[in-house]
Amino acid sequence: MSGISLAVVGGGASAVCLIDALAQTQSPSGSITVFEPSPNLWRGRAYQVDTDTIKVNAPPEDMSVRVGDLDHLRRWLDARQRVVEFDSADPVSGACFPPRTVYGEYLEQSAYSALGELRRNGWRVDLVGAAVTSARCTDERIHLSTSNGSDSAFDYVVLCVGGDGPKDAYGLSGAPGFIADPYPMSHSLRGIGPREDVAVVGSGLTAVDTVLALAAQGHQGRISLLSRRGVLPGVRQRPLHFEPRHLTKERMRALARTGRELPLAEFARIVAAELRDAGSDPEAVHAEITDLGREAPGERLRRQFAAVDSADPGLRILQNAVPDIGPDVWPQLPEKDRAELLRSHYRTIMSLCCPMPPASAAVLLELVDSGQLHIRSGLRKVAERGGGGFELLTADEPPVTADTVVNAVNASEGRVPVGALPLVTSLTRAGAASLHPHGGLRLARATSRLADAQGRHDPRLYGLGTIGAGSLFFTFGVPSLVDRAEDIVAAILRDAGDRHPTRSADALLPA
Questions:
Q1: Which of 58, 64, 136, 461 could form a disulfide with 450 if both were Cys (CB 3.0 to 4.6 A apart)?
Q2: Contact 361, 301 (CB under 8 A)
Q3: pLDDT tens per residue, range 383-398
Q4: pLDDT tens for residues 411-460?
């Protein structure tokens, strides 16, 4: 077959964004092969077939996989609602938050629609249910070996390997009553007795989903939500439209093209100017990030829930700016500033930029007020008890006992999922890629090409999603995936046009 050959390693949400971006171009025909060993093709870990209780945490405009079309998901939801009646409206804010399982259906249909479009345009499409275990780079092509013993060569390879599952931070794997990964919750939680005491370890969105799923199945026993810092996701405020004047992609990319460092203090002044022009108080937003330890987790949740209808746009500006310009700003910051942000404020910034729907916060507060849910920080140790069950030790309060422990902690800081380690190791040993000190692989900012330790990159190798978290800071939100997917497709088609000018280089996407 003539045309380029493209391998996509991984078949989750990032792969869907990439394939859809490719299908929207007028590129010359070629071949695309998607490698995904899990049964959750296109859905990934978080969007499996599951209970309708757990919802996505962003409105449809922030979850569309289509480049330049923020209404793509909303139109799909409207069409689906005419066939299958359901209500995604948040009763507190009125915003739409579809169930995660419904969003997984959207990912599936978007992927197959895009692949169908590619086929109609002359592309060959192959789906391979095997893991890629190693890569070998020659002068001409990238050779991929798989777990089923096959070896294939491609012109371009994009790593869309996703994130890891929860890490077993307390060494409880195999213990009776320990649930290592709560997804899908309709399966993992159904064996919990209705009156058992349950401890949910972690305080992020997965932990919130777990509590909501337990409440929905009528759980009557005590639920304890425990973590080291007690950083719950923020509460998403009612949508408020605004147009940035200072924190724009164009300005940040123009700064990046200068090649100079952008000290954090200088960037903070740009943020403050944006906030002031929008009528917000920069000091209040700064305090929301830095004063975390001054409030108990439940008090912070209650205060943020009370501010759902706040007219102050400050947090909304932050929530839009981090995924929108974070990948452009992050590589410009001096290393000492990046290290300090990761050490002191990463979890807080993520909690504010990935907030929970208001209705989810309302359920948590109802459970707290009824005395069924207890939220505690300072978790130090989780151990099995003699005779069954678990004991959880915190810094300042009496131990918590539980019959079941649900593991909802964040994924490993390494950000290279266990299943992708053999492939990543083969690339780093060959010098085709290098590990980033803050996690994942080094990526070039503008193209998402894999880079070695000296910053040199191969125009045939790319990374999309969490694999580039150390290089680009915020990589897992759908808007970021869509932006990076557009960049990758443009870079691949431009390189293909440069190498083979007869392959219609005038059809390429703009940079």
A1: 461
A2: yes
A3: 999 889 999 999 878 9
A4: 765 578 889 999 999 999 999 999 999 989 999 988 999 999 899 999 99
Q: Are the beta carbons of 43 and 108 closer than 8 angstroms?
A: yes
Question: Is residue 192 within 8 Å of residue 198, measured between CB atoms?
Answer: yes
> Would you give the end-to-end CA distance of the chain in angstroms?
27
* CA distances to 339, 462, 467 from 439, in Å: 12, 16, 8
Provide CB contacts within 8 A for 318, sequence distance 6+.
Answer: 285, 349, 352, 353
Tokens representing 420 are 């992708």
The Cα–Cα gap between 495 and 94 comes to 45
**8 Å CB contact between 316 and 240:** yes
Beta bridge partners of 403: none
Tally of CB atoms within 10 A around 370:
8
Provide the strand spans (E) within 369-434: 373-376, 379-384, 390-394, 400-402, 404-407
Sign of the torsion angle spanned by Cα atoms 81, 87, 89, 90: negative
User: What is the C-alpha to C-alpha distance for residues 438 and 468, in angstroms, rounded to an integer?
Assistant: 10
Greatest C-alpha distance within the chain: 73
Closest listed residue to residue 448, CA positions, set 424, 478, 468, 428: 468
Cα–Cα distance, 339 to 470 (Å, whole number): 10
One-letter amino acid at 114 equals A
Handedness of CA 397, 398, 399, 402 (dihedral sign): negative
460-477 burial: b if 16+ Cβ within 10 Å, else e: bbbbbbbbbbbbbbbbbb
> Cα dihedral sign for 439, 445, 449, 454?
negative
Token pair of 94 as six digits: 């009125």
Tokens of 217: 């199945």
pLDDT-wise least confident of 12-21, 43-52, 81-90: 81-90
How many degrees, rounded to 5, is the angle at CA 344 between CA 343 and CA 345?
A: 110
Is the pTM higher than 0.85? yes
